[in-house]
């Protein structure tokens, strides 16, 4: 195993910059997820590490081996790197059996026949596919194909493992099972892994660290809990989990950790604990997770009660989703009992909301 | 077990300074360049020289062009060429469009079967079809002789521009049919249904919706057929020459091959002129279609839109269509085969008195003819296999490599579409006369293999590329990431996956090589005859029975091939 260093990685397609100045250090044995919407540059970054695309600038190094260095004109073709890549489409060769697929990388490395057989058996047992060695890919289900693709990659012990949305072609139930299985395998093998996905649940459940990407740049790097609880900007807050955004104006300043008084567009005021310093007069956006908000039930301990208008009600199984309008900002609340009437008093906690400077430019 | 997987392998070897794909890719590109340039450069050069290309002294001049323009009758030749190509196009487009609508879009009985029969001229060469038409409608043809006894003099004359256009039109109508049909099946059926729902009747919907939607296909195939009409050699050679009607191809043939003292300057200039015109037309085709497939391979089944109801006219229209198929396709081919098995064919003599296999016996008794059949098989089998290998390599380089000049190679590989068969023939003839050391090749069948390969690279690419484009690039990327270089990936992943397409490509090339004659008649020598050249020789000698027998052999072999491929792969072959 080896660590991965990416420095200043830049890739342009024509006039479009797909990846811009990406810096990342993945430690030996670490599992890092690149997370973001489609077109954020996560797959381009992965392709640059694997050598499938030649980047325009920056440096990529795995272990002691420089894979790519634009400044020194170094570019190793994919076959001279030691990456294992599991494709979103699995890319199993349809004209070869499962065993032949797994044997291919070993035959390239001139592994002796006996050793080859042993390793194929071992790796197929690892992914619980030993009974299917003689089958052809089209005779397997999606989940089985995915396991074979992983086995074919693990069998030659690559320096780093790259996974490109490996679960996205599975249906919802199977995806849950495959995710749990992948998590288990990950703890057993401790491979240096880059995992690309647009699914926040996969990212949160599997990763040591998550790299959230947006528009070709890194928006935030951090442990799953950090990313969820302390998003760096409204984009990250919105992309990870459902978030309600509330635009407001600061009335009295507060230092970091102090108490700030905010005024909403309709004149309602609330006091919050500011996780970032707030200056009087500046515009801010307050972000809450749906589970942080509840219907005010008289007690206002350590929080603000605000008057909102109900815009919609929908039963989503076990819960009601209630659409609210608070001073022009749309909010979504989850509750067990459907509220009656036109208006609703909403309770927001004093601490726990996140304060961003400026207006929120994300659609809530 | 996990520990075994955690072993750290040695750092990967540094990439070689000189990867082996470099010689393979450059080698293939160079080979294609030589193949394509070989016939073209001598033609262009010769057109600018005052003497023969192989003379020691010559000067560059434009005099040939002036001389060609002054050649008496050359204006008439050009006029004949344009009229013949134009009339052929009109006949082909008319028949093809009507057939596409009748067989593809109406509830006419047996539409599928008739559609299949309509395609048959495409699989045969125009040469063979000409012999068939001669046997039925020629001056001593079966029907021509039968007609006067009933209705007075026969009203047709094949030895005219109109007669030639009829044969060529029937032979090229399948192309128009295919393009119109595929356009019709790709069209959203709801467009027609919307017209019907708005109150348009069958006729109005056809005229206002269906036909306008087919216009791009009709226009494209019209340019295609006009181009083929210009390049056509067989029909004018058989019916035009005896009547004194010369077109550009027969002009080239008569002045370059048949003449005892060929005027090379004149021939090369006429060839260069033809090359320029066809280049322009092919460029026009590309612009019209937006892609570069002159030879298409239809595959798969598209959903059929709802057929038009013919109502009471169903059976009368069927009768007309059947009459056409019988008169234009079945009768000529049937009569040709029948002629092969008789010593003399005439409505005046009972068939039982003339039935014989002596024509076939003669062909296999005379080494010249049996050798032609044998050579045709060798050229088609071995040449087809070699060409398939080259085409597979080109396709993989063009579509699946980072080769620097892959776009240039793609363009180059498709360029022979713009080179008429007669021009390629003249060009290779010069090239082999010019280059020392190639004398051995010149009198062997290998010169034919080389020329045919060059001619049909685009056909082969057309058969291979669509399938290659369907193979996900992830499959080769996966191999690359795992440590296979480009050549290993191509050999072990891409080419095996392309096997069905390569078999299809081989079959198309086999059929194309087997029926090719226009390039061969400039290149063959005693000992390297093929069926096409032997047919023309026998025709000149008036050996109609032997011509029919040889043509029947060609028809039979191609029929077996087409049936086998369609049975095995369910693909339709055109080209």
From TrEMBL, chain A:
Keyword GTP-binding carried by entry: no
GO molecular function per UniProt: ATP binding; ATP hydrolysis activity; transmembrane transporter activity
SMART domains (UniProt xref): AAA
Limits of the ABC transporter domain: 4-240
GO terms classed as biological process: quaternary ammonium group transport
Cellular component GO terms, alphabetical: ATP-binding cassette (ABC) transporter complex
UniProtKB keywords: ATP-binding, Nucleotide-binding, Transport
Highest taxon above the source species: Bacteria
The keyword tRNA processing appears for this protein: no
Designated name of the protein: ABC transporter ATP-binding protein
Automatic annotation (TrEMBL), chain B:
Name the UniProt record assigns to this protein: Iron ABC transporter permease
Alphabetized InterPro entries for the sequence: MetI-like (IPR000515), MetI-like_sf (IPR035906)
Organism of this sequence: Teichococcus oryzae
Family named by the database record: Belongs to the binding-protein-dependent transport system permease family.
Membrane topology, record value: Multi-pass membrane protein
Cell compartment(s), UniProt: Cell inner membrane; Cell membrane
CDD domains, alphabetized: TM_PBP2 (cd06261)
Source organism superkingdom: Bacteria
Domain ABC transmembrane type-1: start-end pairs: 78-285, 373-565
Pfam families linked: BPD_transp_1
Keywords, alphabetical: Cell inner membrane, Cell membrane, Membrane, Transmembrane, Transmembrane helix, Transport
GO cellular component, one term: plasma membrane
Main location: membrane
Parts of the chain that traverse the membrane: 26-45, 82-105, 117-136, 156-180, 217-239, 265-284, 315-338, 344-364, 376-398, 418-438, 445-469, 493-514, 521-540, 546-569
A biological process term (GO) from this entry: transmembrane transport
């Amino acid at each position: 195993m080896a660590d991965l260093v990416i420095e200043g990685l830049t890739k342009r397609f024509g006039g479009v910059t797909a990846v811009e100045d990406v810096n990342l250090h993945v430690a030996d044995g670490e599992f890092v997820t690149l997370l973001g919407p489609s077109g954020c540059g996560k797959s381009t970054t992965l392709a640059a590490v694997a050598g499938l695309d030649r980047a325009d600038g920056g440096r990529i190094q795995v272990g002691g081996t420089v894979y790519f260095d634009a400044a020194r004109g170094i570019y190793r073709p994919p076959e001279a790197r030691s990456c294992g890549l599991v494709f979103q489409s699995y890319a199993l060769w349809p004209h070869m059996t499962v065993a032949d697929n797994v044997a291919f990388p070993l035959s390239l490395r001139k592994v002796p026949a006996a050793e080859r057989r042993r390793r194929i058996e071992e790796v197929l047992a690892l992914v619980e596919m030993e009974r299917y060695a003689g089958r052809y890919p089209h005779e397997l289900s999606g989940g089985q194909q995915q396991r074979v693709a992983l086995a074919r990659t693990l069998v030659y012990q690559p320096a780093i493992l790259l996974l490109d949305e490996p679960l996205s072609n599975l249906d919802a139930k199977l995806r849950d099972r495959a995710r749990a299985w992948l998590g288990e395998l990950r703890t057993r093998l401790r491979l240096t892994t880059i995992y690309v996905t647009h699914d926040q649940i996969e990212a949160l459940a599997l990763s040591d660290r998550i790299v959230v990407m947006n528009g070709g740049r890194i928006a935030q790097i951090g442990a799953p809990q950090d990313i969820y609880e302390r998003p760096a900007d409204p984009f990250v807050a919105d992309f990870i989990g459902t978030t309600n955004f509330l635009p407001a104006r600061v009335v009295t300043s507060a230092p970091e950790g102090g108490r700030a008084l905010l005024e909403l567009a309709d004149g309602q005021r609330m006091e919050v604990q500011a996780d970032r310093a707030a200056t009087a007069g500046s515009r801010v956006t307050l972000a809450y997770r749906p589970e942080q908000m509840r219907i005010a039930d008289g007690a206002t301990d350590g929080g603000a009660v605000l008057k909102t208008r109900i815009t919609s009600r929908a039963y989503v199984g076990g819960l009601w989703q209630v659409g609210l309008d608070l001073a022009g900002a749309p909010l979504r609340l989850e509750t067990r009992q459907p509220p009656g009437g036109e208006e609703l008093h909403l309770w927001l906690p004093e601490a726990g909301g996140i304060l961003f400077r400026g207006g929120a430019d994300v659609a809530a | 077990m996990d520990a075994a997987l955690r072993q750290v392998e040695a750092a990967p070897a540094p990439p070689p300074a000189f990867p082996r794909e470099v010689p393979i890719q450059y080698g293939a590109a160079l080979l294609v360049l030589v193949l394509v340039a070989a016939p073209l450069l001598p033609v262009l050069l010769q057109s600018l020289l005052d003497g023969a290309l192989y003379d020691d002294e010559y000067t560059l001049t434009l005099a040939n062009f002036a001389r060609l323009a002054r050649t008496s009758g050359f204006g008439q030749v050009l006029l004949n060429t344009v009229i013949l190509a134009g009339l052929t196009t009109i006949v082909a487009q008319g028949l093809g469009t009507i057939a596409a609508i009748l067989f593809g879009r109406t509830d006419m009985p047996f539409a599928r079967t008739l559609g299949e029969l309509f395609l048959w001229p495409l699989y045969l060469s125009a040469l063979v079809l000409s012999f068939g038409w001669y046997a039925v409608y020629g001056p001593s043809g079966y029907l021509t002789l039968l007609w006067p006894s009933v209705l007075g003099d026969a009203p047709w004359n094949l030895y005219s521009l109109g007669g030639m256009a009829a044969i060529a039109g029937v032979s090229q109508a399948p192309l128009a049919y295919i393009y119109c049909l595929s356009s019709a099946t790709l069209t959203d059926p709801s467009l027609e249904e919307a017209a019907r729902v708005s109150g348009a009747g069958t006729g109005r919907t056809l005229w206002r919706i269906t036909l306008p939607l087919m216009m791009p296909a009709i226009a494209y195939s019209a340019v295609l057929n006009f181009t083929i009409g210009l390049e056509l050699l067989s029909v004018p050679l058989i019916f035009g020459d005896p009547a004194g009607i010369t077109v550009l191809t027969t002009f080239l043939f008569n002045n370059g091959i048949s003449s005892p003292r060929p005027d090379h300057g004149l021939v090369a200039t006429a060839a260069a002129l033809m090359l320029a015109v066809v280049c322009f037309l092919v460029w026009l085709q590309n612009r019209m279609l937006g892609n570069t497939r002159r030879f298409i391979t239809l595959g798969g089944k598209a959903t059929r839109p709802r057929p038009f109801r013919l109502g009471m006219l169903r059976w009368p229209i069927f009768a007309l269509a059947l009459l056409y198929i019988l008169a234009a396709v079945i009768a000529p081919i049937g009569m040709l085969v029948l002629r092969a098995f008789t010593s003399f064919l005439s409505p005046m003599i009972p068939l039982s008195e003339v039935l014989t296999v002596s024509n076939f016996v003669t062909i296999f008794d005379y080494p010249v003819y049996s050798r032609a059949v044998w050579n045709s098989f060798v050229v088609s089998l071995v040449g087809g296999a070699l060409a398939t290998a080259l085409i597979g390599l080109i396709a993989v380089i063009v579509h699946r490599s980072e080769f620097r000049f892959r776009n240039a190679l793609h363009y180059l590989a498709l360029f022979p579409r713009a080179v008429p068969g007669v021009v390629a023939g003249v060009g290779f003839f010069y090239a082999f006369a010019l280059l020392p050391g190639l004398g051995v090749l010149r009198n062997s069948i290998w010169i034919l293999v080389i020329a045919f390969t060059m001619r049909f690279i685009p056909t082969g690419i057309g058969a291979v590329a669509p399938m290659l484009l369907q193979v996900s690039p992830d499959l080769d990327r996966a191999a690359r990431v795992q440590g296979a270089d480009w050549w290993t990936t191509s050999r072990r992943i891409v080419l095996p996956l392309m096997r069905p397409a390569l078999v299809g490509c081989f079959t198309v090339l086999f059929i194309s090589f087997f029926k090719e004659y226009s390039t061969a008649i400039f290149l063959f020598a005693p000992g390297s005859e093929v069926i096409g050249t032997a047919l023309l020789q026998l025709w000149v000698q008036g050996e109609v029975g032997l011509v029919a027998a040889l043509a029947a052999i060609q028809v039979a072999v191609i029929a077996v091939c087409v049936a086998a491929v369609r049975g095995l792969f369910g693909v339709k072959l055109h080209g």
